[in-house]
Specification:
Layout lengths: L1 H25 L5 H4 L3 E4 L4 E4 L6 E8 L6 E7 L9 E4 L5 E7 L6 E9 L11 E8 L3 E11 L4 E10 L4 E4 L9 E4 L14 E7 L3 E7 L5 E3 L2 E10 L2 E11 L3
Parallel strand pairs: 2-8
Antiparallel strand pairs: 1-3, 3-6, 4-5, 4-7, 7-8, 9-10, 9-17, 10-11, 11-12, 13-14, 14-16, 15-16, 16-17
Length: about 250
């Protein structure tokens, strides 16, 4: 019985060897440049945030695998707010180009766009398409200087107040520490919170507990004339310092 199995195994191995030899004889390798003279896209980042004053220009690199001849590389775009050219012209010997795409989106919004090399111009050796997520900040209107009072520190200070153009989103730049803003959104009548105040780092680092963050407690705001009382909970990674009301006296 063992001998039968042995001979059958040898015969099978011989057949596999013949088959592999046959495949190897027929295989021919074509260089990348000859077999696939296409183009691909590259970019430093695909999630990009623009300040309100930044030029609305998206940039990416278009590169060819075979730059020997002149060529027009066709492109497609998924979002009409981005003015992607129908094609990009390459001169003979030119391997890559930076492509600038003007776009127009509203402040405070995010748009996605997929830019792709058209199938007839694409290569299988690189990225044929890329999806970019573009966020543009609000145009912030300066309302003036108010006064902010923080219950955690028991202190008050002059505070510049900004509001997103056409919105009821407020920003308090450098509120507790430089480089760290506090934002909150009110309803259209400015009498209530439109949504819970998101967790935000304050920039103050506690000597024992690390970075202190602030977020809205469960309560709504209180308002007395020009003063808004914000329900604020101050937290660190180890827990919470508690929740009370900070106050913001708005500019006149």
């Amino acid at each position: 019985m063992k001998k039968i199995f042995k001979y059958a195994y040898i015969a099978l191995a011989g057949m596999m060897a013949i088959s592999l030899t046959s495949c190897t004889d027929k295989y021919e390798y074509d260089g990348v440049g000859e077999a696939d003279p296409g183009a691909f896209i590259s970019a430093a980042a695909t999630e990009i945030k623009y300040a309100a004053e930044d030029a609305q220009i998206l940039k990416f690199t278009l590169q060819r695998t075979n730059p020997e001849t002149a060529e027009d590389v066709a492109l497609t775009c998924s979002n009409s707010k981005f003015q992607v050219p129908a094609s990009v012209s390459f001169a003979a010997g030119e391997a890559k180009k930076e492509v600038s795409v003007p776009f127009s989106i509203l402040g405070g919004t995010t748009e996605e766009v997929t830019i792709a090399v058209a199938p007839q111009s694409a290569t299988v050796y690189g990225v044929g398409e890329m999806t970019f997520t573009i966020t543009r900040d609000f145009v912030w209107e300066y309302l003036g200087d108010g006064v902010y009072t923080c219950w955690l520190f028991g202190e008050s200070w002059p505070q510049p107040v900004y509001r997103g153009e056409g919105t009821h989103l407020y920003k308090l730049p450098d509120c507790i520490a430089e480089g760290y803003d506090i934002e909150f959104e009110l309803t259209d009548d400015d009498q209530h919170l439109a949504k819970a105040i998101a967790k935000q780092e304050t920039g103050y680092v506690h000597p024992s507990y690390g970075m202190v963050s602030v977020e809205g407690a469960a309560d709504d705001i209180k308002r007395e004339d020009n003063v808004i009382y914000l329900p604020m909970k101050y937290t660190v990674s180890a827990g919470s310092f508690g929740a009370k009301y900070d106050s913001l006296e708005l500019p006149e």
